[in-house]
Amino acid sequence: MSEGILVANLDDIAEGEGIAIDKSITGTDDNIALLRDDDGAVWALDDTCTHETASLAEGWVEDGHVECPLHASKFCLKSGDVQGLPATRNTCPHRVEIRDGGIWLFPNETP
Amino acid sequence: MSSTCSVVIVGGGIGGVSTAAALRNRGFLGDLTIVDAGELPYDRPPLSKDYLAGRKSLDDIALQSPDWYDDQSITLRNNTTVAALRADSGTVELTTGEQLRADRVVLATGGQAVRPRLPGAGIDALHVLRSAEDADNLRKVLLPGARILVVGAGLIGAEVASTALHLGADVTLVDPLAEPLSAAIGRDAAEWLHSVHAANGITTITAGIDGFEKTTDGIRTYLRGEPHHFDAVVLGVGMTPNTQLAEWAGLAVDRGIIVSAGQLTSNPAVLAVGDPTRRTVDGAVRKRAEHWEAAQHDGARAAATILGLSLPAETAPWFWTDRHGLHVEAVGQMSAATTAVTRGAIGEPPFAVFGIRHGNVVSAAAVNDSNAVRAARRLIDRAIAVDCRQLGDPGVDLRKLLRA
Ligand SMILES: Cc1cc2nc3c(=O)[nH]c(=O)nc-3n(C[C@H](O)[C@H](O)[C@H](O)COP(=O)(O)OP(=O)(O)OC[C@H]3O[C@@H](n4cnc5c(N)ncnc54)[C@H](O)[C@@H]3O)c2cc1C
Ligand code: FES
User: Fold this and answer.
1) CATH number of B325-402
2) Which residue of A35, B61, B173, B292 has the fewest CB atoms within a 10 Å radius of its CB?
3) What is the CATH class of B115-235?
4) Closest CA to B116 of B145, B140, B151
5) CA-to-CA distance for B23 and B1, rounded, in angstroms?
6) Which of A47, A48, A51 to mutate to test the pocket of ligand 2 (most atoms within 8 A of CB)?
7) Binary contact (A60, B371; C-beta < 8 A)
8) Lowest mean pLDDT among A4-8, B119-123, B173-177
9) Where are the domains of chain B?
10) Taking 70 as the threshold, does the pLDDT of residue B335 lie above it?
11) Cβ contacts (< 8 Å) between A67 and chain B: which residues?
12) At CA B23, angle to CA B21 and CA B27, rounded to 5?
């Protein structure tokens, strides 16, 4: 298990929104989207939609899902599973921990 | 009708494939067959965008991976055309003479690009765009410097003009309307969006066309009385619904297959989804939707009807279109609005225009601001009254209006 990376503060992300953390920080192949659900919980997914090129961090976050800002495929925040076309492939989830208002990211660890 | 044991879907576009996916998703265990005339079920929106530009292959735009059909126990009969439907016996007849029987048949036959009956409309260098084959043929002529006329500046025409320009062609775009798409996104936004073509180097002309003449090196047509010469012409002037199977089977058809709110045709053994249908909602027969998501939602409803389950909630109609690197979305019914509220400035993306009636949002269109449209859709669906000043203030988080 990795140490985790402190990537943002909880206050940096409004409920229902997301921010992208650059891959130079996460050390992953893709940037990672931190997505804050409307219940306040924070989740992390690979940022690039599996359909075409869109940043899920710019998507609409609601009810356990993020809706892609281009063609509106939905992905489960927890599992990264795609819920419907046009995307057909799941995206990759990453584990997140909140400590003292800080968001710690554990790239490639299953939530 | 949970006693349904077999379903045959005619057509493997987004409508047909979504019907199949939703049937399995909601627990249908019977035999499921998709018959499609093409090589494989693929997605059409990229045909005027990345596929036409050569950035995506047919495999890249497949609606589902090849394994999906096996995984879902769906028999895909590709390269197979249905010649006739016998609604009463639940039989579809293939062009080979083979007959497939099913408890329920779903027509998901899409449509064809309109070729207007104008003099010269049969000339070889006159293209339309509906299938991957059309796109392959068109790409061959979109060469650097090629003189291309695009007729129709609504959705597909505007996208083709943009792709052609970015491939280096010398593009002229003609439409009888000065602000194409204004019915869908409002006049001011439409006027600006259309002006983006000229700003990028496309010659835009407001005119009708009354015919084409073949010349030794291409096509001649008259625009506002002046002769113009082109290497090729692309017609983007609309779609004709594929309603023949329904008509021959005696189903109710009136410029589209008439279906119920749950996608049943006039014969309850047959359902229909997607581009060729006109849905009856609250007693009124709607126009054909002709957008990607509408066909997807039709599929979800058809599956629910077949399984006797509740229909998914109604939601305002939505579509997107892309041109010159701009992502445009629209939701709801612009014609229902009595006033408009602009968020940001038209012409300076991101911006959005909301249509308002009696204090409620009834429509929205946005350029590079999908979340404004996604918020508007929820405001419409949930009938939440809004304060127009807040709606128009880019500093106000639209999600807050939803929580109000
Ligand atoms: C170039 C282009 C760009 C578009 N861009 C956008 C966009 O950006 N946004 C948007 O919202 N919408 C867009 N659309 C519209 C969208 O693609 C359609 O609304 C959608 O494809 C409709 O799906 P469908 O399943 O009803 O029909 P189709 O996709 O047409 O599928 C029908 C299928 O049925 C098959 N078929 C028909 N008759 C038979 C038969 N007798 N036997 C066997 N098979 C048969 C056909 O081969 C076809 O595969 C675009 C359309 C085109 C053509
Ligand atoms: S890019 Fe995300 S759904 Fe198309």
Assistant:
1) 3.30.390.30
2) B61
3) alpha beta
4) B151
5) 12
6) A51
7) yes
8) B119-123
9) 7-111+239-307, 115-235, 325-402
10) yes
11) 374
12) 115
